[in-house]
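Box 3.1 A note on notation
Throughout this textbook, protein chains are presented in two layers. The first layer is the amino acid sequence; the second is a token string describing backbone geometry. Keep the layers aligned when reading.
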Amino acid sequence: MKAANPGRHMLQSASRVFRVRGICTTRHVSDKAPAVRRFWRSAGVGERNGKYVVTLDGRPIKTPGGTQVQLAPPQKTLAWLMAGEWETQREFMGAHSLPLTSLVCRSIDGLSDAATRVDVIDKLLKYFHTDSACLHEEYPHALVELQQRHYAPIVDWARKAYGIEISLTSDMFALRQSEEATETLRKALAGFSPLKLAALERATMAAKSLLIGLALVEHHVTAEDAAMAAQVESNSQTQLWGQLENAHDIDNAALRQTLGASACVATGA
């Protein structure tokens, strides 16, 4: 009896996940971005020098900068998930159809550079001073309820996790966090690996909140929890006025794709 191939099983499982969730899409992801025709027959995972590589027809993939993508042993699952998103591409690849690969390449080409890391951390900390999770309105009731359900637990976690004071306000223009809290977070982010910082960068930009991004990459919340927190305001509007079906569906899927990819990349990073 032929032994089962665990690697092939992982690839098939990853491929099913991406197909079911619609994470990997076709040329219709973006009408503006040029579509690239699939040029490989199969994707897989190999080993090179004690690290994992994602392969296309047996050849390791490289970043846009020309560096071979190599993942440390703790990122074995990530390697198979990346292979899965390549395997599920159809005739054409869309511009945003490889979210995991994009994040890993960002960590290698960009966030392995000290100057780039400093610049990214500076930009992330700007979100802290306009953080949506720190804006707590007093009305309407639906919005207040959603803020308490989704924002408050994340703010409480961040206060305890980093030992900082976090100011809340109902006036975005009055929001300002202390220098002490900012520098504490700066030190924490400086200790992030390139992979984890790439995940945080993408999650923060998608959620428009550093605190939501941190809670996600530190695995305090799931991608779905993070998405619900990021959509507090829009969900309160939906409760009042109803949903614009097509537009909201696309936005919801894109947000969850980004946050889900960030959570995967941060695992073991």
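Residues 16-31 have pLDDT under 50 and may be disordered. The two ends are 38 Å apart (CA to CA).
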